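Illustration 12: Concanavalin A-like lectin/glucanase domain-containing protein.
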Amino acid sequence: MYLPLCLISLLLSAVPAEADNIDALRPRRPLPNPSDGNFFHQPQKRSLTQFQELQFAKRAQAADGGGINYNPDGSAFLWLPDDVYSGKNFFDSFNFFSQADPTDGHVNYVNASSAFAKGLAYVTDDNKVVMRTDSWTKLPLGTFRDSVRVQTKKLYTGGLFIIDMDSAPWGCAVWPGFWTTGLSIPPVIWPAEGEIDVLEGVHDNEHNQIAWHTIPGCVYDNNAVFSGTIPNDSGVNRTNCDASLNDNAGCNVVEWSRASYGELFKQQGGGVIAMKWDENDISIWSFFRAAVPQDITANSPNPSLWGSPSARLMNTKCNIQKTFANHTVIFDITLCGQWAGNSYATTNCPGTCDERLVEPANFINSSWSINSLKTYRKHLLAGNITQINDGSFSADSSLLTTKLIVLLGSVTALLAISI
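Figure caption equivalent — predicted structure in token form:
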């Protein structure tokens, strides 16, 4: 007996919709060993019911006309909502780092109570998350300026990370970063769990510089397709991510757009940066405010529709599952230090880096204005994807088949009864 296509379509439709690159020393950035055992927490493993899976699939398809992503082996998956960091609750999910800057920056990183009391961290009435450097205190020469560094309590091994910002810090002596890295808790030593620099620059740069810092054995695949430019040292491209080489330059990509960092980024309304990290690759996209994909706005992101990323690290020349794991997400603003300090004399910035720190008006643009940071987890439509302790992925490919058999069996039974 042939099953009427219209009946299958009717049943499926009945599922409701859910409710300039400055070459200088690159820093080695280990995190401190937390004294509190609850300083970080691991994400929960979760799976979807049949109803939820169909709901999300339908929402994704409605959002962008496709919605489904595919692995190189042809298996289908969705990016499902995981965490949202935004608004008044943003800082509840972050720890404030208040130790000496590991990158030798000339800042005093303050704790949470000081940051809130001094106006270095706050949420505006319209739910903009602001983190800034002190821009109102005149300092004696040689004094460090107060600033902020925060990192998520939750750790991630893979995911899709989408940050929506109105502005990011910039200016002479300023060195901000939006990045992820492993904890470096002994006996683990940085960069055993890798580092991913998603947004980073110094001084008045106009181009965001993306970078990876890893253990030996991780390099770019020359066949990878992306729109950014790989910088070089003395004619040698920076394609080796090994942090022990080239003064920890890592493997870098400079974005092509002059509005991907600095003043122009702010002038055109900011935008969205997305970082996809799974077993296939780690890729980063940047979108102007006017060009943010509709699927991102609809909270049903589909990276397969976004075109070539700005940068891409492939698993073909880097074992991503063994090189990157247990990352905290970090926002910071440091001043001078190993990169901005060492490169200061090569810029058009006046005086010296230390002299720049004296006047507070020099740092009125040294602030983050964030609308949200959203994370998504990978879910195979052919089953449940889970993350194993070593960072590898496994999947049960029988789940969806079982569901389809049950559905078709139910329809057949109904037809038999009606006959």
